[in-house]
Amino acid sequence: MKTLEGIPASYGYAIGPAFMYERAELVIDCHTVDDTEKELCRLAEAVEVSRKQLEHVYQKALEEHGEENAEIFKAQTMMLDDPELMGAVKRQVEAEKTNVESALSDTVENYAGMLEALEDEYLSARALDIRDVGSRMLRVLLGVAESPTEGLKAPSIIFAKDLTPSDTILLDKTFVLGFCTSKGGATSHTAILARSLGLPAVVGAGKKVRKIKNGTSVILDGDSGKVIVKPDEATLAEYLIRQEQFIKVKSKAAKVAHEPAITTDGHQVEVVANIGSVDGVQSALDSGAEGVGLLRSEFLYLERNSLPSEEEQYKSYKTIADAFGKMPVVLRTLDVGGDKDIPYIDMPEEFNPFLGVRAIRLCLTRPQLFKPQLRAALRAGYGNNLKLMFPMVATVDEVVRTRALLDECMAELRAEGADVAESMEIGIMIEIPAAAVMADQFAEVVDFFSIGTNDLSQYTLAADRTNASVAAIAAGFQPAVFRLIKQVIDAAHAKGKWVGLCGEMAGELLAIPILLGLGLDEFSMNPPAIPYAKLLIRSISLEKSRQVAAKALNQTSSDAIRALVQEQVPEVNLG
Ligand code: PEP
Ligand code: MG
């Protein structure tokens, strides 16, 4: 028996044989050609055939997984028409007189490599899309069949380096028990698809999983991220019981998804969603979200060549805020810099970008960038419950300057006779330790806080969140981080302000009793986690949570806190 560790991406347990999912290696022969015109015709043909294939995959995805999951194939079709990408292929064919396969393969690798180098989870996923489109075209050019699923004849756990969106759609789901990839993060396509199918998944499990042989018996633990290879009898028996238990928990969670999150002793909190696009609205509503606690506005700025206009932003924000009616939607202003770079915004090269001109710091130095977003938000907030939140605030002065800019936008809009939000709550993210320490002063100048534990943990522990070697330290389940959270909540409540938390921690079942006990008012998480969070909150008491929280603050390590919660609150265990 051997246990491999990965990132838990979708709850549940799968037990069965491994199926190693490999695409046939595409062998690209690089040679010079005399007739470049002919090569360019072959390129145009490959684009057209790929377009037809993608239309078919889009339809299949639409029928089986809904609009939101199918969108990706529309985006891929757009890549076929991308003048920059296809122009680069054509230029290489013309300038170097190389065959189109070789030019295409080089170009795709260049673009994908550039995106991956940015070490941003979202952009890495786009790199996968570009490779997916590139491979599709190469298969067309080389006459290789589209589907690699032959060979999957019995229910199995799918292991792959990384699954492309097309791979996942073309897989015969009746034979899939769960997914495990050696690459990828919790927001990879595999993870999203697994959640939409309700199948357990582990991602980012490392190269070792590639050594597992086809047919080997494995257990996939989507709650903890473990992959157990050749389990012994006792482990197998334990997991069979956990699996049975999980099925019951899952159906209970689905039943309470649209109920309020009230503890057994009558304390109610809000459970809301983190979303990153207009497409996220439906899955948030379906999962039982009572609003949006974090709308990451970066989606409007990525994958394009110029800034989105005020009008475009207004329409997107309004569509989302209106979809939630009276429910709150917290729009976070642009958070770029750090690990998120936007090529068309001229940002200086920085030695340490996480400590550099990121988020509000960037926006405050560029009113021409910031004001259209503020104006769009003020307009979009008319007739709904849109709130505005600023990321990476470190000093009170930044809030004062931001508010002044907001007042300026409001005055301009009023003078123009535009419809604007009557009153809009203004909040900040608490994700820099300085802000947590000074929370009492910040509570004087804002209406609410949302704690961003992803960043608060990395800055508190001095552990880069994108560096796998310090991932465990940066993961946030640390007594130091919980102590800061307590300080923030107490300071806000003393001034009558509410506090949310929108880092990954809000959806972690082991963290929920502690956060509840510390007095958190709003939990904002990935939509699929919502039903489980509600089920847990509805089955524990505030009284007990307070006791657990008090003890957690006095533990000396993250492991000790986990063990404490597991022992004191058995409801956190899904199986
Ligand atoms: C956070 O830092 O916890 C957060 C929610 O923001 P992001 O992950 O977008 O930096
Ligand atoms: Mg953050």
Q: What can you tell me about this protein's structure?
A:
The structure is a single chain. The chain is α/β, with parallel strands linked by helices and 575 residues long. The protein has helices at residues 36-80, 83-96, 100-117, 121-142, 165-170, 189-197, 233-256, 280-286, 310-323, 360-365, 367-380, 396-416, 433-437, 439-445, 453-461, 471-474, 479-494, 512-518, 530-539, 542-553, 558-568; strands at 2-5, 7-10, 13-20, 156-160, 176-181, 201-203, 217-221, 226-229, 261-262, 268-275, 292-296, 329-332, 386-390, 426-430, 448-451, 498-501, 522-525. The chain is globular and about 75 Å long. The model has no long low-confidence stretch (mean pLDDT 91). Residues 294, 296, 335, 431, 452-455, 502-503 line the site of phosphoenolpyruvate (PEP). Residues 391, 431, 452, 454-455 line the site of magnesium ion.
Features:
alpha/beta; eight-stranded parallel beta barrel; 14% strand; globular; binds phosphoenolpyruvate; binds magnesium ion
Compact summary:
The protein is an alpha/beta fold.
Give the class from helix and strand content and strand pairing: alpha/beta
Q: Ligands in the structure?
A: phosphoenolpyruvate, magnesium ion
Indicate the proportion of strand residues: 5-15%
Biggest sheet statistics: 8 strands, mixed
Q: For the terminal residues, how far apart are their CA atoms?
A: 21 Å
Integer-rounded radius of gyration: 25 Å
**Average pLDDT across residues?**
91
Number of E strands? 17
Note the overall shape: globular
Q: What ranges have pLDDT less than 50 throughout 5 or more consecutive residues?
A: none
Percentage of helical residues?
A: 40-55%
Q: How many separate helices? A: 21
> Which strands sit side by side, in order, in the main sheet?
1-8-7-3-4-5-6-2
